[in-house]
Structure formats: structure tokens, C-alpha cells
Design a protein that fits this description.
Elements (H helix, E strand, L loop, with lengths): L1 E6 L2 H16 L3 E6 L10 H7 L6 E2 L7 H19 L3 E5 L3 H12 L3 E5 L11 H12 L2 E4 L2 H9 L6 E3 L3 H16 L2 H5 L7 E4 L3 H4 L2 H14 L3 E4 L2 H9 L3 H5 L4 E4 L4 H10 L2 E4 L2 H9 L4 E3 L7 H5 L3 E3 L4 H10 L16 H11 L2
Parallel strand pairs: 1-2, 1-4, 2-3, 4-5, 5-6, 6-7, 8-9, 8-11, 9-10, 11-12, 12-13
Helix pairs in contact: 1-7, 1-17, 3-4, 4-5, 7-13, 10-16
Length: about 350
């Protein structure tokens, strides 16, 4: 069996790593197609190196652009590769433009589509990620759901064939890498940080970066909180911080520490040792939950509803007052830790299922 894996963004590299290891272990051929959606070194090569993923067979170099341009370019270039390679299955991850383009290119060529992280829903169609994940699920043949909630979402949309509850591959990745991170990361020493003496922030979603009001509210809330906040800055976010004149405001503050994007191992250590995490990232919400770190989500809705229901995650949007209040007051409600996102063997289950259909 030949499998073509389509990835293009940092979270997908993390999700792909444990699955690719399992494919290699079982001698199943994998063609890695990197769309180039994230093209910065820190967002790309360092992740491949740290996660032990071999170099992609194809790097399409699409880069940034509008949703239509980016998805269209990916669709065209992925189709060319699939025609050449003729795989049995195209494997896509998550909810990016790379995910949708890979799925559409495959289904139009009558190639089976397998979607890892199927069934997630924020029920907010203003989010491009929601459109991507819904459309991908509806053209997929194998739907690998990370949680029971995801299975129910698919069932409610009439998708009942080819659905498998596998657990979460990001949990697999964390279990595999957390000890390696603890032993090898120097990030706390480099930044002169003490465990549980800082907050960690990430902001990259278009709903926040593309809105001057939202991004200003978030940055002002960070500064007004008075807490030391470590802020690895996504390249798109840095562009908008400059555009909106917020870089100067940050530089004049004494509690907001902007740093360049960090690799996966350093990020795990920063997450584990943070007092609280502020983020609009789906993956970071989950990692906070896995590591039992309170999470403040800078969005109105989340596809990872389990983390909210369990009391470890609070949704505050880009409301300045809510953010400041959550920084000061939010604590996990009780000692609950109900949802386990599987047992760390999701990637093994996924590959076994694919192997069974070869």
C-alpha cells in the first residue's frame, strides 16, 4: 500500500510524526507532500528535525496568500503529484488549507481520503478552519476521530460509515516527546525563567491578527495584567503588530517578553512550566490540557469543547476585561480531569485500520 501524506503547517508536523513512525515500522510506503504553507525555518525544518520526520518527498513551496489563492495553488500542485505517484490513500490532518486541498485533489482523482482529527466542530462558520474540517469530513472515506464528541458530531451530520474512535495523535506525540524535551531543552535557562513564574501566550488566528481592535485588546490586556508573559510571535502576528503600531507599545512595557517562534521541544517545556497559557491555537489548548496547565482561550468558541467542559479552559474572545480577569482569577474548576484523548496509541490504531484495508 502506498500512502500520500499532505501537510503544510506546524501542528500537522506534530500530528504526522507518530503516524509516520508507525507506517515505517510496518513497512508501508509513505510519500510526504509538504505544501509549504508554513515556510519560515522555525515553523518548518526545525520541527521536522526535532520530531524525527524525514525530509518531504515534495515541497510545493506555496507560501502565504489569500485563502482562495493558497488553496487553489495547493490543489493544482497536489493533483500533479498524486497523478504521478498514484497512491492508494491520501492522508490529511486537521483543518488547514493544506488539509482541504489534499482531500479535494484526492477525491477528484477517485483516491481514498483518510482524515486524522475528523469530527471536530466549533460551530462557527466564520472560521475558515471550520469550513475546511467540515468539507474534508464529508469527502473522506476513513474518519479518525480523536474523541467521543467528534464521533457524535459526525453521526449528527449523517456521517456514519468509515468512522473510527482512535484517540488523539497529539497526545501520542506529547507522550513520546515530553521526557526528551525535559532532558534537552535549554529554553528556561536561556530566557532566565523560573517554573510557574510566567504566563505563556500564542496568537496567530486570522480572527485576532487581521482585526486591529482584537489584536490591540489582546496586547493591552497582556500589558495591563502586570504578569510576566512570554510571547513566541508567529510571523503573521509580528507583521500585524508592526502594521497596527503595537510593537512600540510592547517594547515600552516591562512585562511582555516577545521571542521568535520556538521548536516543538522548547514549546512543550514552556507550556509545562507556565502558570497559565493564553492562546487562540487549537493544538496549544490541548497540550495545556494534557499537561494540566490552566488555559485561557482568546476565541469565542473552541472545537476542543472537552477542555472547556472539564473546567481547564475558559473562552474569553478578544474582550480586554475578560482576558485581564481570567489572568487574575481563572483556576480549573475542581480536580476534574475526565477526558483522556485516548491512551497514547492513536497512531497505532490508525495505521492498523489502514493496513486492514490494503
Amino acid at each position: 500500500m502506498k500512502i500520500a501524506t499532505v501537510v503544510g503547517a506546524r501542528p500537522q508536523f506534530i500530528k504526522m510524526a507518530p503516524v509516520s513512525r508507525e507506517l515505517e515500522k510496518r513497512g508501508m510506503g509513505e510519500i510526504i507532500i509538504h505544501t509549504g504553507q508554513h515556510y519560515d525555518y522555525e515553523m518548518n525544518k526545525i520541527f521536522f528535525n526535532q520530531l524525527g520526520i524525514r525530509e518531504p518527498d515534495y515541497n510545493l513551496g506555496v507560501g502565504s496568500g489569500s485563502h482562495g489563492y493558497q488553496t487553489g495553488e495547493m490543489l493544482k500542485k497536489i493533483e500533479e503529484v498524486l497523478i504521478k505517484e498514484n497512491p492508494n490513500v491520501v492522508l490529511v490532518y486537521g483543518d488547514t488549507n493544506s488539509t482541504l486541498a489534499g482531500a479535494l485533489a484526492a477525491v477528484k482523482l477517485h483516491i481514498k481520503v483518510a482524515h486524522v482529527e475528523a469530527g471536530l466542530r466549533s460551530f462557527d462558520k466564520k472560521m475558515p478552519e471550520e469550513i475546511n474540517r467540515v468539507l474534508t469530513d464529508h469527502v473522506s472515506d476513513y474518519l479518525f476521530a480523536p474523541t467521543e464528541t467528534a464521533v457524535k458530531n459526525l453521526y449528527n451530520e449523517g456521517i456514519r460509515q468509515g468512522v473510527y474512535l482512535t484517540g488523539d495523535v497529539m497526545y501520542d506525540a506529547l507522550i513520546h516527546n515530553i521526557e526528551i524535551a525535559r532532558e534537552n531543552s535549554e529554553i528556561l535557562r536561556k530566557l532566565d525563567l523560573k517554573p510557574k513564574a510566567y504566563l505563556l501566550a500564542t496568537v496567530h488566528r486570522a480572527e485576532n491578527t487581521d482585526s486591529p481592535e482584537n489584536l490591540r485588546n489582546i496586547i493591552e490586556a497582556f500589558i495591563e495584567s502586570g504578569e510576566l508573559i512570554v510571547f513566541p510571535v508567529h510571523p503573521r502576528t509580528r507583521k500585524y503588530l508592526k502594521l497596527y503600531g503595537l510593537i512600540e507599545k510592547i517594547e515600552n512595557s516591562d512585562n511582555l517578553l516577545l521571542i521568535d517562534p520556538v521548536g516543538y521541544l522548547d514549546m512543550l517545556v514552556l507550556e509545562e512550566n507556565a502558570k497559565k497559557i493564553l492562546t487562540d491555537s487549537g493544538g496549544v489548548q490541548k497540550e495545556a490540557y494534557f499537561l494540566k496547565v490552566p488555559c485561557i482561550t482568546l476565541r469565542e468558541r473552541s472545537e476542543w469543547v472537552e477542555t472547556v467542559e472539564d473546567g481547564w479552559n475558559i473562552l474569553v474572545g478578544a474582550d480586554k476585561e475578560k482576558i485581564v480577569k481570567a489572568i487574575a482569577e481563572f483556576k480549573p474548576s475542581g480536580g476534574t480531569y475526565t477526558y483522556k484523548f485516548g491512551d497514547g496509541k492513536a497512531s497505532q490504531r490508525i495505521v492498523e485500520i489502514l493496513e486492514g484495508f490494503s
